[in-house]
Structure formats: C-alpha cells, structure tokens
C-alpha cells in the first residue's frame, strides 16, 4: 500500500479537530458500501464513490474500518485495499504504539499459523494493536506502517500501560459495557470453551469484537481477553450505543432453530479460516488447507452441524434436490451456495453460446449478500477470502440455493 499526502478532504468540525493528532485518511478506490455496522448483513447507508475521502477512526477487525465521511456521518467500510487506500497518516503514531513485543514472534499476513510470515518481530519493538479477530490473534501495525497479525499470547506481546485500547475505547477501566448478572468468561466463543472465571454483576468490560450473534470478544479490567454471551440479561452496552460488530444493545438473540442465526454461525465458521491456503484435492480430515468444496463443507459442518457431500458437483445435486434453485444470483439469500462453471475469460462474450443448464460445476462458494462471496479458488488469490461478484464470476454463475 502506497502512502502519499492527502489533499482536499473537507471535514466537519468534529473530524477536523481530530485530524490534528495522527488522523488516518483513506481515499475510496472503487465504489463501496458505507454500512451502519461492521457486517455485510447490516444496512447500507449509501455507497461511497471512487475519489471520496474518509477519516479512518479505527480498524474494528481485519475486515472492517470504522470511518467518518465528509458529511460527518460515521459508518463502516471494508478494509480491502481495492476499495480504500490510506493517503495520509497511515503510520503516524505507530512508533510509540500501544503494545511491546516481549519475545521474538512471527508477524504474519493473516490470523493463522498457515499465513505467510512477513518477518519476525524483535523483542522490544513497539506496535499498534488495531483489532482482535479472535482470542488467538491481534491485528497490528508495525512501526514501519506494515499491517499484519501476531499471537495474543502474553509471552510474545504486552499491552503498554496507558496505551490505547484496540477497540478504540477509552480503556478497560471505564469499558464500553457492563455485566448485568454473573456470567461465564470463556477462552473461545463456545459453551464448550474453557471458563476463565465468572464475571461479576457491575464489572465493566471492553467489547473488542463480535464473532457471531451469540458471543462478544471482550477485554476485562485486568487485561484478560476472552468471550462472553451477548444475551442482554448478562451484559449491556454503556451509553445505549451499538457494540462493535454486533447487534444493538438489548436486542434478542435468535433461537438455535432460527434460519438467520444458523446462517450467521456458518459464515462465522467460514470467516475464521480467512487466509487459509488453497490446495486442490485438500484433505477432508484437516483444516490446514482447503479447496472450494472442502471449505464450504467445513463451514457448514462447524457452523450448522450439517455434513455436505465432499465435492462441488455433489453439493450442487444436494441443492437441486431440495428445490427452489435460483439461476439469477441477485435472488439469492445470505448463506446460500453459489455454483460456477469453468473460467473461459473476462468478457461476457467468452461465455456466449454456453448452455448453463448442462454446464459442469467446477466451483462453489458461500453467498454473503450485497454482491459478495466467501470462497477459496487458487493459491495465487491468497486462499480463503471474499470477492465481489462481477466480471467472470457473474458470467460463470450457474445456479444457487440454500442447504439449510
């Protein structure tokens, strides 16, 4: 990512005041959804256009920035650099950081030990924690402006006293949420995860993320990170605001049989493998690499306890047998499977004359809504990731539908 000086961003008064100290300005590279929450299922406030500039207030997790537009409106946009490029202030303040490396540790391109190593961070280096996608990884910015991921293990990294909180809050002493009734504080977003301890009524905590509709990722007053139920009988967001990446406070969680909740669990299960390398014919008994159908199968097995067939053509037959197949992807719902034929080129004319009703399925992915797909399709693409359905993906689409 190239850093150049921004020129013409006209900011409202509140944002202008903020720019006096290490403000990060981004320029929109391609039209992108400006959303009410860091989720593709949240409301689109409007579409930001190419050339617009925004103030990046924080990086909520590896997928979303919280930003302020030129009108002063605050919302969320994708962190993908095909949509936004940092044009000013991207590495300001990084030398002071909010955390210190305690022992040499791998600095990786994604939140996975399978992700490529950028380099080793050295003992004594200071870094800025910008997010925490799960309990095992911090998203950080190094002193040279490089962004990546590092283990949250305290043997490798220590948050500096008085440093800024990764969630963008004012520190865990004040927190951004209060425990309403005693609740389990766990090592992972699951009732099967180990209990760290019970949080007590009246404790304040800082919500740093929300991996799905049932769990908040939080930091307790003592700096311990873990997970707690989003149920409003246990926790309430201070000030009536929305929790990072989640539902409005006081909102009820869907029941376990609710289709929408099941879809979100599947997508959350898939998202946790972001960046996992691609391998054609990957081992169905491991999660170290995936091909397209193995990835889809894993997401539904872990998120919905549903065992799908092991290859894309059989998965296509599974959807067909359920009926209600859609050949226009715009009619698909979040969580539906999408099936594609072979790549023939980048132009619509490259696919002219092909009978899609009889074309062979060669690829599958999970529809996220808003014209995006969660998938893995090549080593070069970087493994598991999201893509916009345009160009050849649009031309190659055969049909889609739900398996739930």
UniProtKB/TrEMBL annotation:
Keywords: Hydrolase, Protease, Signal, Thiol protease. SMART domains: SH3b. Coiled coil: none annotated. The keyword Heme does not apply. Residues 260-404 form the NlpC/P60 domain. Residues 18-86, 94-161, 174-237 form the SH3b domain. Pfam families: NLPC_P60, SH3_3. It comes from the Bacteria. This is SH3 domain-containing protein. It comes from Paenibacillus glycinis. The keyword Hydrolase applies. Belongs to the peptidase C40 family. Transmembrane segments: none annotated. Gene3D superfamilies: endopeptidase domain like (from Nostoc punctiforme), SH3 Domains. Residues 1-17 form the signal peptide. InterPro entries: Cell_Wall_Dynamics_Protein, NLP_P60_dom, Papain-like_cys_pep_sf, SH3-like_bac-type.
């Amino acid at each position: 990512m190239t850093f150049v000086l921004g020129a013409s961003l006209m900011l409202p008064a509140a944002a202008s005041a903020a720019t006096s100290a290490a403000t990060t300005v981004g320029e929109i590279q391609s039209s992108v959804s400006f959303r009410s929450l860091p989720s593709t299922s949240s409301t689109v406030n409007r579409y930001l256009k190419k050339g617009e500039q925004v103030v990046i207030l924080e990086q909520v997790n590896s997928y979303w920035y919280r930003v302020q537009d030129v009108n002063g409106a605050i919302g969320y946009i994708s962190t993908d650099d095909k949509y936004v490029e940092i044009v000013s202030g991207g590495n300001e303040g990084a030398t002071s950081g909010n955390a210190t490396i305690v022992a040499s540790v791998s600095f990786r391109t994604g939140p996975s030990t399978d992700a490529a190593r950028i380099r080793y961070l050295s003992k004594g280096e200071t870094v800025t924690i910008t997010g925490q996608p799960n309990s095992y990884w911090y998203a950080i910015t190094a002193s040279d402006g490089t962004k990546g991921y590092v283990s949250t293990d305290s043997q490798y990294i220590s948050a500096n006293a008085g440093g800024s909180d990764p969630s963008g809050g004012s520190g865990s002493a004040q927190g951004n949420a209060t425990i309403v009734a005693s609740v389990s504080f766990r090592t992972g977003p699951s009732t099967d995860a180990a209990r760290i301890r019970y949080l007590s009524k009246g404790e304040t905590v800082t919500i740093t993320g929300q991996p799905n509709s049932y769990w908040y990722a939080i930091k307790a007053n003592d700096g311990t990170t873990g997970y707690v139920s989003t149920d409003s009988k246990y926790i309430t967001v201070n000030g009536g605001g929305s929790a990072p990446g989640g539902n409005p406070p006081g909102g009820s969680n869907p029941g376990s049989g609710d289709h929408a909740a099941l879809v979100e669990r599947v997508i959350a299960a898939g998202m946790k493998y972001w960046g996992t390398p691609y391998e054609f014919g990957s081992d169905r008994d491991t999660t170290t690499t995936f091909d397209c159908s193995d990835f889809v199968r894993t997401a539904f097995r872990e998120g919905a306890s549903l065992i799908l067939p092991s290859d894309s053509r059989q998965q296509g037959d599974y959807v067909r047998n359920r009926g209600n197949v859609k050949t226009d992807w715009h009619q698909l719902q979040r969580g539906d499977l999408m099936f594609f034929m072979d790549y023939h080129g980048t132009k619509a004319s490259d696919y002219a004359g092909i009978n899609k009703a009889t074309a062979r399925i060669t690829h599958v992915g999970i529809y996220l809504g808003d014209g995006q797909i969660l998938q893995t399709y090549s080593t070069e693409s970087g493994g598991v990731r999201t893509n916009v359905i345009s160009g050849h993906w649009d031309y190659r689409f055969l049909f889609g539908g739900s398996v739930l």
